[in-house]
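Please check this.
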Amino acid sequence: MPHPVGADPRPLTGEPLALDLLNTRWIDAEGAHDLLEAEDGLAVWLGSTPVREQTAPLAPAADGATLDRLLETRTALEAVAASAVLREPATADATAALNEVLGHGRIRRALGAGGLPESVVEVDDPPWGPSWYAADNWLRLVAERPDRIRPCANDACVLHFYDVSKNGTRRWCSMAGCGNRAKAQRHYARRTGAGA
C-alpha cells in the first residue's frame, strides 16, 4: 500500500545516506514494506532530512527515472552490504553494480571565490543524483569504519545501521523495537523455562 506524501513510516531513519536507502525496505508486524514502491514514497524519502541536505544542490525530482535509478542503486548496495556484514570483499558483480552507479557522477574540484577550494558534484543526468550520493556515501562509510556498518541483530529484521556508539557494541536497529523484543523474549524464556 503506498504511503502518503510527507509521512515517513519507516521505523529507522537518520542513518547515513547509503544505509538510509537500504532502510527503505523493512518488516514489521504487518509484514514487508517498501517505501520506494511508488513515486509518492520516493517523494517522502527525498524529503527526509539527511537525503534533502545531501542532495539539495541537485534538486532531484520524485519521478520514475529517479525511482528506477534508486532501485538499481539499492540493489547494488544490498549486495555490497551483504559482503560487508560478513567482513568479506564484495563479489565482482556487486562491485561492478556499485561502480556502474558511481560512473554516472564525479566530484569536480576547483578553486572557488576568495581562493578557497570547493567540490562540486556533477552527474550525467539529474535522476542519477540521489543514487550517486548514496553510492558515494557507501564509499565513505567503508573507508572510515567498515566494522561499524551492521545489520540489526534481530534475524527477522532487514534494517542496517552505522554504529556510532563509543564502544562499538550496538546490536539493534532500535532498542525500543528489536532490542526490546529480544529482551522480552529472553525474559519470557527464563520465566517459563523455555530456554532450558
Summary: The mean pLDDT is 87. Strands lie at 25-28, 31-34, 105-111, 117-123, 149-151, 160-162.
